[in-house]
User: Fold this.
Amino acid sequence: MTAVDARAGTTAEAGAEPFAPPPGFRFGVATAAYQIEGSTLADGRGESIWDRFAHTPGKVADGDTGDVACDHYRRWRSDVELMDSLHVESYRFSIAWPRIQPTGVGTVNRRGLDFYKRLAESLRERGIEPVATLYHWDLPQALQNGGGWDRRDTVERFAEYARVVGDELGDVVASWITQNEPWCTAFLGNAIGRKAPGLTDWATALRVSHHLLLSHGRATEALRSVLPGGGEVGIALNLFPVLPAVDDEAHREAARVRDGYVNRWFLDPVFKGAYPEDMVERYEREVGPLNAVRDGDLEAIAAPCDFFGVNYYNPMRVEPSPDGPLHVRDAESVGPVTGMGWEIDPDGLKQILARVREEYTSLPIMITENGSAFEDAEPADGVVEDPQRRAYLAGHLAAIGEALADGADVTRYFVWSLLDNFEWEDGYAQRFGIVHVDFETQARTPKASALFYKDYIDRARKGS
Ligand code: IFM
Assistant:
């Protein structure tokens, strides 16, 4: 018995009773290219908006960048072995567009494609399913120089990129996610300025949101034209239960607005083919005419998907405020929070799943991200105790079990994240990994939560 197995054994006593995974269900882990790969200048990769943003003083905590990150571009083989050792069944990674098309247009960079091809093949050899995301925020900087997602032409460039990648990797990757969390890209990147490209213009952010959604529709079409039978396509949205901090009309209205801003603005066009009317009115009143939408766009956005990806972390409690975006701000959390200050509420995941099913779609659901950052202790004798993360995982896995029992059709669960990594504007200060990374030595140490997850998977499989 290895040290890892011995420690995993101890988690069984404290661990939750696993749910019975339905046929086809897979337990996975997720990452994203800029957050783990490093090697930003290797093999012809072009500059992305996150390289530019991170290298702009004052944008990222401690001046951190993704230049090295987890050095995964060079260590991918041992990272695949690591996943195998944790008995992970599915791996969601993202493809860096600037590795495939360094300037976002035209010539395809073979070395970039080969990297992802080798990765996907090696996952498959170990029986780990590869799930690829096309866009996890690293737009080629050259496209941003020409207007980025504010420019309609970027949508066509993205569809072209999707077609190239789908054509090359479709034989090894069956499941494809077009866009990840377009709310973050559009609004945190272009209205609030907290993420790349760091703009603070609401009119731009609204156009960007529309173009991102349209790019999902166009990429879906492009992927379908090249993927072999069995290929499946979906989008990943980050969804939040939004709760009024106080049960009165002003707070309920604040919750409706926040829900419109973070959830419905994306769910409605994807599943109902229309933007929510109350939000259209609000944006037109407060920002100006929504001039990006053309005939046929909403039909393209609502093109049927094969699955729906839900990223869930926390509920939002809100209150009215003249200063907040659209006059709403976050209120105090109730109960425990993570290192990000995000309220911990596994029940919120069940609420989201029920809402999606009741109001939007009966498509199979992949929980494409779920996880937590905490201030972990440094490894001691090869051990990192992270009881809070372990409890977070156990609680959310139990919630999925309950949702399944209530009839939800959940087919994947991806823990965010396999590794501690570059947490965007927070740099390396926030650790989401179930595996600890020493950023000086690049040593990987599975935390107690990773061993809990491995043990959970083993027990779930034994029972099934
Ligand atoms: O790290 C991010 C990820 O890139 C997108 N979803 C949320 C995670 C935690 O903030």
Notes: The two ends are 24 Å apart (CA to CA). The pocket of 5-hydroxymethyl-3,4-dihydroxypiperidine is lined by residues 32, 35, 181, 311, 369, 416, 423, 432 (CB under 6 Å). The CA atoms of residues 320 and 368 lie 31 Å apart. The first strand starts at residue 26 and ends at 30.
